[in-house]
Amino acid sequence: SVAEAMIAGIGRQHARVAGTTPDGQAYRADDVALLDWVQATASFGFLSAYDACVTPLTGSEMDRGFAEAAPAARLYGALGAPQSRAAWQAQLTAMLPQLEPSAIVLEFLTLMRETRLAPGPFSRLQRPLLRAAVGLVPEEVRTVLGLGPEWLPRPFEAAAIRLAGHAVDRLVVPGAPPSEACLRLGLPADWLYRGPVTSRTG
User: Fold this and answer.
1) What are the Cα distances from residue 85, in Å, to 11, 48, 60, 90, 120?
2) 143: buried, middle or exposed (CB in 10 Å: 19+, 13-18, 0-12)?
């Protein structure tokens, strides 16, 4: 019920957002096709980041991740969000002809690269993490956006981020979804992290 109320509020915000693209096409933030694309890229991004930077996922686990996001996606209005890797690939293929380069993308990435966001020594991770994020973007999309090799992670950076991601994934954070899920089931907050890992998606 808490999630449904929050999602309804986001839906009302989307309903108020409308405009015109640089080439004169009208758009609305609550357009189902746009919501489907947002959900598709979000699912792809989260799954790809976990697969690349924490623990490799099997194909069936990736499909399961897409499918498990569908109920919440429908509440947001994304009625046709992909529920498998094959459906994601089909949606990406259909969207590619509509994608175009935008100065806003490079402006945003430059801002994220140049603006110090983390305190102390953690700030040194900012640029490698940004490059790792760009590296997750499908190559054909990077080509459209003009994101060249300078935006991609160095080999040693990818390995270091993977080690750090795997370590952090085992960190019990109070209030985080895994801890809260355990507590709702009457289990200790660290229950998912006890003993051998039996499920990468648990």
Assistant:
1) 26, 11, 9, 9, 39
2) middle
Given a contact cutoff of 8 angstroms between Cβ atoms, the answer to whether 137 and 147 are in contact is yes
pTM exceeding 0.85: no
Helix (H) or strand (E) holding 20, with range, is strand 18-20
- Contact assessment for residue 109 and residue 132, using Cβ atoms and an 8 Å cutoff: no
Find the length of the chain: 202
- Helix intervals (H) in 115-154: 126-136, 139-145
User: Which SS3 state, helix, strand or coil, does residue 198 take?
Assistant: coil
Write the CA distances from 66 to 126, 141, 165, integer angstroms.
Answer: 28, 20, 21
- Mark 40-64 as b/e (b = at least 16 C-beta within 10 Å): bbebbeebbebbbbbeebeeebbbb
Give per-residue pLDDT as tens, 113-163. 988 887 777 788 889 999 999 999 999 999 999 999 999 998 889 888 888
What one-character-per-residue DSSP string does 166-187 give?
A: HHHHT---TTSHHHHHHHHTT-
